[in-house]
Amino acid sequence: MTSQEPLQSPEPLILPAQLSESFTSRRKVIGTLGLATTALCATSGTASASWFGKKKDELPVVKVRSVPSDARVSKGTAPSKNIGGFPEEWVRLQGRNLKDYANYLNSLKMRNISAQEVIAAHAKERGSVWNMLPPRQWWTRMGYTLRVVDRVSSEMRVPVKEIVSAYRSPAYNARCRGAKRQSWHLANVAVDIQFDTSARNVTAAARSLRDRGLFKGGVGRYSSFTHIDTRGTNVNW
Length: 237
Prior knowledge:
By secondary structure, the chain is an alpha+beta fold. The protein has one domain. It contains nine helices and nine strands. α7 (139-156) crosses α9 (199-211). The longest helix is centred in the middle third of the chain and has 18 residues, at 139-156. The model is unreliable at 1-53 and 65-70 (pLDDT under 50).
């Protein structure tokens, strides 16, 4: 953690038992929670075989409280809503989804993360295979994880440096050296994140917030980035 004065302790997260302890269908997620929602390409933990054996639209859900209104980490201005500068070929492959996904990300009203930063993690190519934006029906899944990252940034008072990896399509994931076939990135609930501080500090902050009830998920520390996911069960590595 940094030596700067920390924020006031966040309010404890409300975790309904029926959501935190069981699998919830996509329909229930949307109806109940709404919009609440290289080593750098390496896997960030092994996914539970129990989830990957279920229907693709099922996932443990954790509701994350919004970041306090005064908790923005100063980077000069609030995160921009504008996006652009991505490879033309990649933009063409995304079609209408690109603008719609940007609108969804902006609707989360994150204080320390821009839609541009999130989308940039998808506009990557490995071995002639482009990564893609997540399936539309899975967009809200990433909202939970991004709110956790947003809160970690506020807690440390340190800005996000780069979202190294978020959703990874199966074809792209297969080209990532060391990536597991059942990575949580495939489920669109995981990010590999760099802050302007050491990965050790980020990992400690994320685990502290998780222990205080902010979310349930995995936190893994690597030499240059930290993996954070909202799989619904707590795992460390």
